């Protein structure tokens, strides 16, 4: 009894809060042999446990660890670690006493104890370079760190789980080194940097896993920029990891496609580190510091980032950029981001009221801290971490423009630089340094306990006692001592913050220092501004990039640019034209013919300047197909290709390839090339709208032909058949059927098949469905070539009907149930791919339906009028004025087409000229037959043609092939100006375009109401 009391007293003296419970745990059979072995070696465990932050919890977790290791291969390692008072035991017990979360992780994986054993010859985890951590993380998921674009071999949940386990094992090593450091305040920067480095490694590994899961992401470069403490290499154990994503397309990929792929990749990256899974999430990945915050796109190109910060960024956003650093993904692209935005950061102080805005922002942050938390908030409260950080950052921003020696991303290093430069006294810097380390160390110990993001100092005595012991600082042992020290630190930090951050000289210095960046007027800059460049400085940078050096290419550029700058200025987008020309020139590099052609050709350079400064669509397309520049010297190269010639080329290209994807990409390549030819002709005014619409439609025809060919072969092979069980046909509908496609059009189609004699009907149907599905998938999938969405919604029964039918099924359906709207849709039906004989049979089937003898029944006319009225009332997008909607608005495409199609249904049985799929051809036939007077036909044609040209101009000008966007006449003056120029109007006539459209639409509506509604 006396011995038990004595032992309890000893344990209480050693710091155990529940000595009796501790004694029982020490005697537990699972732990007893380790206790006895340590006692025998002269290194008793109770004394060692008494040195940690929470001896009771450390002992409990140690008992659980011993139980978990029992009977496994981990027992010897645990016995070795606990046997003597060496570094490994001190690390293990320190971790168990300070971090319940890491203790639980060790119990779950007892083998991780081996990580705490010293490895002779290996550096401390705190001494590893960022490159070492990146390599370690990438190798863990099977990626090659030396690859230009590392891709993991471990994918899916396995890859995610591995990178998370790798991160936590490294975090355990860092925490162990931190908790046993002889001087934790001195080692704090190394600890914070090490955490940031393993975070960067985890992000790189996550990118590698995401790329493995998303092979199509090879088409995009993705850089992950660390912001805040991540960028400054001063991270906490657990906190949001602030990032910004930058993307750029690889050669042959559009910017829109790169953004789409980059968004998928960045989303997958976030899931890999933050989503729920078999292994716990690491930390929230916060991308809210991106332009426009949560409301902005997740990824942007470098040019988009630059444009945002040049135009719309607020003062605080430049301050946030101070710490931006490439941490994962394409580091070269990340560095390009930093290089592009850094000048804006260091000149942001020139913005009006910059200093006052920064000071006001600090006040707002402080005011938003709940009153109940103000005294316990380590980060945002008065005298907290933000006081030190904002002080350092404001001084850097005010003085760093002219003094590059004070631009460190890290708070403590920046503080030392400011002191060395005389911007803050050495005594004040030393005090802020010491107090900042204290606050950050306390934050670390606070978060380590549960590995939860918190900056609130607890109020209960037990937690304060644990924190005080975990700090292991003189005078900070016990709840009262910790609170006293914290109050002193915060008081002194606040005093220095108010003295420096709000000093009156800062705003004055910011205003006066603008003289340091003033320049004498530059003739080139003045000329560029005078002739219409919105960003002369940016233009000069592009010019310099193109003309600097002594190479032959630079010499030719010096001859070309003085003239081309004027040609660019003749377009509505001179800055974009020059930037696109720079990108194109850099892409072409030393290609021998490129600059020679521009210099020696009679018109190629001027044509190129006009294209790049007028059409974002063409500029982007030429950037992905730079050999198209050679077309500009030869009108024959720009002439439309016949469908027969394109079909022959398709067969030749596909026959040279064996891979399914490559074969369909050949068809999609021909479509992309056809779209570019049409667009160049549109911008240069080489033909009318019918020319470009036919070229776009031919390009879609070729894509469908190529996809059908591949889909049939694939479906037959997958079914194990010796040949196709059916004949197959793709019927073009809608604008495709009318050969009136725009740059934003989908391909409306019907799928038809006809089983061969003796074929199993069910097998034939399954195979036909696989063929139809294959066509849609092959043309719709993402890839290096632009997708062509294939829409079969005009089939019998609409989207509720089968995707494909036999010819007999079509005949039965149309005989029994054909609706008036289906007759109307069939007016544009045109066989486009597949068996020619089946195409003729289909046309013979539907001709009586779309060209009915005797015209359309009155009840069918009423039904079409009812549907048209419903379309007008229900389908016009909310918030879009009817006068500006080019398709569904009054007098728009829908009015003209429904009017013409109703008249076709009523008269085509008697007037052969009306048996055409084209709107303008049918309108001409109506005029010639005397059904529509010439004046009224002209009004309908004028509105239809103008609407079609404007829709194409919107896509050509903006570069965004979105049907929803293309259907609305722009409001924004700059965009409207581009559209007006593409339609053929002179500079400054954008309002004339609006008036022209409103007048044409109003007149067309009057005619449509008279003819359609009678």
Task: Briefly characterize the structure.
The chain contains 46 helices and ten strands. It has 1014 residues and is mainly alpha-helical.
According to CATH, the homologous superfamily of the largest domain is: Beta Polymerase, domain 2
- What Rg is obtained from the alpha carbons, in whole angstroms? 36 Å
Q: Rough shape?
A: elongated
Question: Unreliable runs, pLDDT <50, ≥5 residues?
Answer: 511-521
CATH topology of the largest domain: Beta Polymerase, domain 2
- The helix/strand class is mainly alpha
In round numbers, the mean pLDDT is 90
CA distance, first residue to last residue = 112 Å
The major sheet is characterized as: 5 strands, mixed
Highest-level CATH class of the largest domain: Alpha Beta
Into how many domains do the coordinates divide? 6
Helix content: 55-70%
Number of strand elements: 10
As a percent range, the share of strand residues is: 5-15%
CATH A-level architecture of the largest domain: 2-Layer Sandwich
Total helices: the number is: 46
